[in-house]
Design goal:
There is one protein chain. The chain has 6 helices and 18 strands. The chain has about 400 residues and is mainly beta. The protein has one domain: Beta Barrel (Porin), CATH 2.40.160. It is globular, with a radius of gyration of 21 Å. The relative contact order is 0.14. This is Porin domain-containing protein.
Length: about 400
């Protein structure tokens, strides 16, 4: 019996029933006792030339589906519990399995009109850049695909970056013109799923890995919103280590990968325009099977402009640049140009389309292109999203 397949089909069937019910009787949340329930679903169609992205997109692919349901329980004035289940199908990088995306208890130790301090315990969302915490919801991300240069979307690393098992401290300070916030996440060791190992190392080396784990990840973010959010600024950092137990016909070895980096984020909002830019730099060092002490610096930058024709219709344009080795830019760099439209006929529905031109292989999933990748890719994508 294919339990995984049955589970995935089950959650998708449930999501379809929820969507059908919403068409008949739209609601913005379901209330079950003291628990408030929300959810979302999105489905894309992808057509590309040059390389595949999320399935056999050179022939047309629908292998980009996101389904999620989350709940929130306010136990009392200081304690809140929240969690989310998600199923994400993204070609060979994500297999659609149902996962606990996050599940944590939030305790507010101090709260006033001007300041607050709290702790979250459990599987918490990592604050990293403007969009990591809400990257699965089409309504809240900047385009159909996350900016590849900063969020490593096409590399299949979402599971490593999105959440951590551990404790998160957060605080905020408010005044009339400014809101400042701080978040620090300290995670504990946890195993890395085999599909993520394959996304990191490739199928050839992943088959030799007997065990992989993530060691004590640490994330932090300091941000501020000025003039009611007209200008937003943030600095995010990460420090993670990955450990692989590798067995080959000739040797048994351990390999470690240490990554330390930051993201600077800025956004300026006007009545009809929004301008956003983020820059990331991550230093990666390897020890073990391949080499000892070798390292590279991964660098990424994007700038996006969004124009709102009406409150329901907007257009956006984004340019991205990334390199997987800052010291060898000419050999490892990639760039992308994104042009897109978004239409929100009502607050629960969105239809988005993007046209993307890629030079290089940054953000192109290697596991979707086992025959090798080309240097040029053009992508046409359409995605429909719903939330309640």
């Amino acid at each position: 019996m294919n339990l995984h397949g049955n589970t995935v089909r089950g959650i998708r069937t449930a999501a379809a029933l929820i969507l059908a019910a919403a068409l008949v009787s739209p609601v913005y949340a379901y209330q079950v006792g003291d628990v408030q329930i929300h959810g979302f679903a999105s489905q894309a169609y992808l057509l590309s030339d040059g390389n595949n992205i999320y399935g056999d997109s050179q022939r047309g692919s629908t292998e980009f589906t996101e389904l999620g349901i989350n709940g929130n329980w306010q136990a009392n004035s200081k304690l809140n519990v929240a969690g989310q289940l998600i199923s994400r199908d993204a070609g060979a990088t994500d297999n659609g399995a149902v996962k606990v995306d996050y599940l944590f208890a939030d305790y507010k130790a101090i709260e006033s009109d001007e300041t607050g301090l709290g702790f979250r315990f459990g599987r918490v969302r990592n604050a990293f850049g403007f969009y990591n915490e809400t990257r699965d919801i089409l309504f809240t991300r900047p385009s159909i695909f996350m900016p590849q240069a900063v969020y490593f979307e096409g590399n299949g690393l979402r599971e490593l970056l999105f959440s951590s098992d551990g404790v998160q401290l957060y605080s905020y300070w408010d005044n009339d013109d400014q809101n400042t916030y701080l978040s620090i996440t300290m995670g504990r060791d946890k195993s890395i799923p085999r599909d993520v190992v394959r996304n990191i190392l490739g199928p050839r080396f992943a088959s030799a890995v007997r065990y992989a784990r993530q060691l004590n990840p640490v994330y932090s973010q300091l941000g501020t919103n000025l003039n009611g959010g007209k200008t937003r600024l943030a600095l995010s950092t990460l420090a993670i280590a990955l450990e692989f137990d590798i067995h080959t016909p000739t040797a048994v070895s351990e390999m470690t990968l240490d990554a330390n980096g930051f993201v600077t984020s800025i956004q300026h909002n006007l009545q009809q325009w929004s301008f956003t830019s983020e820059y990331s730099q991550v230093s990666v060092k390897y020890n073990g099977l391949f080499s000892s002490g070798a390292g590279i610096t991964v660098e990424g930058l994007y700038a996006q402009a969004q124009y709102r024709f009406t409150p329901r219709v907007s257009a956006h344009s984004r340019i991205e640049y990334s390199t997987y080795d800052r010291d060898n830019r000419n050999e490892q760099d990639s760039s992308q140009l994104v042009l897109g439209l978004r239409w929100t006929p009502d607050p629960q529905w969105i239809i988005a389309t993007d046209i993307i031109g890629v030079r290089g292989t940054g953000g192109i999933p290697g596991v979707d292109n086992p025959q090798g990748t080309n240097e040029r890719t053009e992508i046409f994508s359409v995605m429909v999203g719903y939330r309640f």
